[in-house]
Amino acid sequence: MEKQEKQDKKKIILVGIDKAGKTSIVQSLQGIRNLTAFNSLVPTREFNSIKFQAMGLNYLILDLGGQESYRFRHLEKFEEHILEASKIIYVIDILDRNRYNLSLEYLEKIIDKLKNIPINVEISIFFHKYDPDLEPKIEELAQKSMKELIERIKVIIPNNFNYSIFKTSIYTIFEKSKID
Ligand SMILES: Nc1nc2c(ncn2[C@@H]2O[C@H](COP(=O)(O)OP(=O)(O)OP(=O)(O)O)[C@@H](O)[C@H]2O)c(=O)[nH]1
Ligand SMILES: [Mg+2]
């Protein structure tokens, strides 16, 4: 049972291979909507820990750098990272088909770690960069990829784990109105 006083504090772990879009998602959650900021992002070194408030909740987000050299270290320290976390978000770049295998291998390693940690953590999987304005051909490919990925993820994550899959994009809330 979760303690009452902990309910206003949420720790979230963001993980996935490099360039998946994790840091962009954090900026987006923080309300940074400046396109230049997204474009000038550099790979996260080691990890970033970000605190912010939204809708009356205090969030602590651990954004784990996804470059190869960090991935190994994060796995080694996973017990530490996951401590008191209520959610893990695993980010997969839906447009990066060539690296699906790599991304799923990393996901599998994380799930293996979780199997040995007695913690009840929600898992969200983001099929990210599913932008609202994808070209029809790319969109069609993305649809197919999603189905394939969902099947593969079912094999990786045991049935008794609590997980959900989402399509995401940092551009989703972008709106334009015709004024002339
Ligand atoms: N089209 C598109 N590009 C995105 C989206 N989110 C992020 N990007 C781009 O993806 C690239 C990588 O984004 P980052 O947020 O730095 O990726 P990361 O997962 O933090 O990478 P590491 O820190 O190396 O692990 C950047 O050029 C972003 O602009 C999205 O929703 N759609
Ligand atoms: Mg990053």
Task: Set out the fold topology.
Layout lengths: L8 E7 L6 H8 L5 H5 L7 E8 L2 E8 L3 H9 L1 H5 L4 E7 L6 H16 L6 E7 L7 H21 L6 E5 L13
Parallel strand pairs: 1-3, 1-4, 4-5, 5-6
Antiparallel strand pairs: 2-3
Helix pairs in contact: 5-6
The structure holds guanosine-5'-triphosphate and magnesium ion.
What does the model show?
The chain has a single domain (about 5-165), classed as P-loop containing nucleotide triphosphate hydrolases (Rossmann fold, 3-Layer(aba) Sandwich). It contains six helices and six strands; from the N terminus they run βααββααβαβαβ. It has helices at about 20-30, 35-40, 70-75, 80, 100-115, 135-155, and strands at about 10-15, 45-55, 55-65, 85-95, 120-130, 165. The protein has a six-stranded mixed sheet, with helices on both faces. α5 (about 100-115) runs parallel beside α6 (about 135-155). Guanosine-5'-triphosphate binds near residues 16, 21, 41, 128 and 131.
- What is the molecular shape? globular
Which compounds are bound in this model?
A: guanosine-5'-triphosphate, magnesium ion
What's the CATH superfamily, by name? P-loop containing nucleotide triphosphate hydrolases
CATH architecture: 3-Layer(aba) Sandwich
Biggest sheet, in brief? 6 strands, mixed
Provide the β-strand percentage band.
15-25%
- Provide the succession of SSEs: EHHEEHHEHEHE
The total count of strands amounts to: 6
